[in-house]
Amino acid sequence: MTATIPTQIVLDEVVGACAPWSAVVHAGEQLDIIDLYGNQAVDCLLYSAADHADRYSAQATITAQRNIFLTTGTVLRTDAGTPLMTVVADDVGNHDTIAGACSLESNTLRYGHHTAHQHACVENFLVAAARWGLGKRDLVSNINWFMNVPVEPDGTLGIVDGRSAPGKRVALRAEIDTLVLVSNCPQINNPCNGFDPTPVRMVISR
């Protein structure tokens, strides 16, 4: 399975450090997520553009591929098994789908109440979701592109330095018209962003 050769760039945008982003990627189009500076986590949610109740399911995706990590060939599915997008190219080889998104609540629980003022991915998702008439109850377990979350021998999850590097990308082909919400993760309390969030580039082509 290979990425398509773009014949037309539909959208090419840089998402600032810590910022939200959203767009509809139409069936057959390709979304490239490019880690411009390296070691940046990109949180992501997917919805059928025709029916926002039909949305990405980590459980269905993991069950279908029998692997908790995402890479080339992974089909990102809804609860009903509907394919939303397929990973057609991957320069990193391992992406997380179980660690979830940082929030004000999780930050204070993990890192202390002095972090309560810090911006987090859930807030980014809510900003992006509001553009499409979605709210907090529409947020589900998300994908963390470029984020390295190994399962430790005792079964716990680690959050360690990412495997990405400047210019590395993951490419997704839309199987149906898919609404993509992104939080360019603002986390500064663990190594997922190298403690220094940076911009990423989003390119949609057909």
Annotation keywords:
12 strands, four-stranded antiparallel sheet, six-stranded antiparallel sheet, alpha+beta, 206 residues
Fold topology:
Blueprint: E1 9-15, E2 20-25, E3 30-35, E4 42-48, H1 58-65, E5 69-70, E6 75-77, E7 83-90, E8 95-96, H2 104-111, H3 121-130, E9 143-145, E10 168-174, E11 178-184, E12 200-205
Question: How many whole angstroms does the radius of gyration measure?
Answer: 16 Å
Intertermini distance: 17 Å
Sketch the topology as an H/E string, one letter per element: EEEEHEEEEHHEEEE
The beta-strand count equals 12
Could you give a short account of the major beta sheet?
A: 6 strands, antiparallel
Poorly predicted residue ranges: none
What order do the strands of the largest sheet run in, or round the barrel if closed? Answer: 1-12-3-10-7-6
Strand portion, in percent?
25-35%
Mean pLDDT rating: 93
How would the global form be characterised? globular
In percent, how helical is the residue content? 10-25%
Give the class from helix and strand content and strand pairing: alpha+beta
Number of helices: 3
Explain this structure.
The relative contact order is 0.35. The chain is α+β, with helices and mostly antiparallel strands. β6 (75-77) and β7 (83-90) form a beta hairpin. It has a six-stranded antiparallel sheet with strand order 1-12-3-10-7-6. Strands 2-11-4-9 form a four-stranded antiparallel sheet, covered by helices on one side. Helix content is 13%, strand content 31%. The chain contains three helices and twelve strands, in the order ββββαββββααββββ. The longest helix is centred in the middle third of the chain and has 10 residues, at 121-130. The model has no long low-confidence stretch (mean pLDDT 93).
